[in-house]
Amino acid sequence: MAKLFITNAFSLNMLGPLPPKGLTLKVRPLALEEVKETLRSVSFTSAVGHESTAAILSLLTGVEIPVNRIAINLSKEDRLIVFQLGVRLPEGAVLTADEVLALYQEGKASFVEVVVDQ
Fold first, then answer.
1. Order of strands across the sheet with 109-117?
2. Helix-helix angle 51-61:32-41, to 10 degrees
3. How far apart (Å, rounded) are the C-alpha atoms in residues 86 and 108?
4. Strand partners, 48
5. SS3 sequence of 65-95
6. What CATH number has the domain spanning 4-117?
7. What is the pTM of this model?
8. Nearest C-alpha neighbor of 76 from the set 17, 9, 22
9. Alpha-helix runs per DSSP H in the chain
10. What does the radius of gyration of the chain's CA atoms come to, in whole angstroms?
11. Which of 11, 66, 85, 106 has the most crowded CB, counting CB atoms within 10 A?
């Protein structure tokens, strides 16, 4: 059964230690309204590892998104909604909720969907 995750990062490690040959990922941008609709209509697991990001995602979507620092192992047809910063932060930087929101409002953060397709 396919699962939906929301997270603040995507890593190839989410595909397992040695991703299977022939694995395809489908990636597409998501509008905030689509994210809201999806999170309100289906069960999801949060994998958001930072409190400030979880707070902003909850504010933006109107859905409670808890901090949940977990490792994800994606399977075929699993979906991942990623809140992606479009800037590289200095080493060790931890943003406040206001700083994360400002990046989003400036167009320096966005949502993308990653779907595993084998």
1. 24-30, 109-117, 79-85, 4-7, 45-47
2. 90
3. 5
4. 67
5. CCECCCCCCCCCCCEEEEEEECCCCCCCCCC
6. 3.40.50.11170
7. 0.86
8. 22
9. 32-41, 51-61, 97-105
10. 14
11. 85
Tell me if residue 93 falls in helix, strand or coil. coil
Which two three-digit tokens encode residue 38? 């999806």
Give the Å distances, CA to CA, from 54 to 18, 43, 51, 62, 106.
30, 17, 5, 11, 19
Distance CA 26, CA 115 (A): 5
Residue 10: both structure tokens together: 């995507």
Measured in residues, the chain has a length of 118
Indicate the domain borders of the chain.
4-117
Joined together, the tokens standing for residue 14 give 């989410």
